[in-house]
Amino acid sequence: MNPYSVIITHYEREGNLKNTLKGLNRQSVLPTEVIVIEMGQGLHLENNFEFPLKIVNFERFWEFMPLAAARNLGAEHSSTEHLVFLDVDCIPSDNFCQKIVAASASRNALAMGSPRYILHNNPMGFCVKELRENSIFHPSRPEVNGIVKEECYELFWSLCFSLSRELFERIGGFDDRFEGYGAEDTDFALEVKKAGIPFYLTDAEVYHQQHPIYVPPLNHLEPIIKNSNLFFAKWGYWPMVDCLQDFSDMGYIQWQGNKDTPITLKRKPTTQDIRERLIKNAPYR
Questions:
Q1: Element (H or E) spanning 131, and its range?
Q2: Which domains are seen in the chain, by residue range?
Q3: Which segment, 14-23, 47-56, 150-159, is predicted with the most confidence on average?
């Protein structure tokens, strides 16, 4: 199997990160290295893993999580020719890395794994069998058996994926003009499509831990506006339309749907507005 690096971006979910690292420590083929890009106020981790762990502080920390730039920074710090990107909330199944690296390397392609969503909020101590029994697939995603070539690149989510360094560099990595939450992963997938790189869905499973979310994500209102306008300017259609419709209906933005008029902010949510949209824990939304 090809040597590979795992890249994780982290912001204020240290408990989830520790669970994810434990999952990486029991991989059937261990990573050559794991790189954590720290976007917050620092980590307190004991390096008792069977792989080298690098923690890189992201010096360009902004108010909004710079996910695209942080992932690029992780790739820059990696030392192998094959990359696995893993969401901080995703505990990998024991053979996740072996399966997804093999799928992407053998096909010279972008490969995405299959996220399952944990139904309980405390996965500490769960064995893989328990994780699988206490998790479900997202209802809006296809269930995958084996490795399936996918022509709809919008099905790419950046929770768990793999590709070679050569392909990552060919498309220029993530567009770091996308700052904060929203649309950077769909933009990445469309750049992959534009470059003629095939995309595969695989049954390499990860188990997504619960965390607080806001529905709709008013806590990310301004970056979503900025990123949506950038996405439309690049690709000619709007991303995250359900979210944008919610913001419009609630009177926070001016958005004209299928027209090319940029989204504008009408009013900012108050702290109370945002607090009322908090769901402390849920498998997915």
A1: helix 128-133
A2: 5-208 (3.90.550.10), 214-279 (no CATH)
A3: 150-159
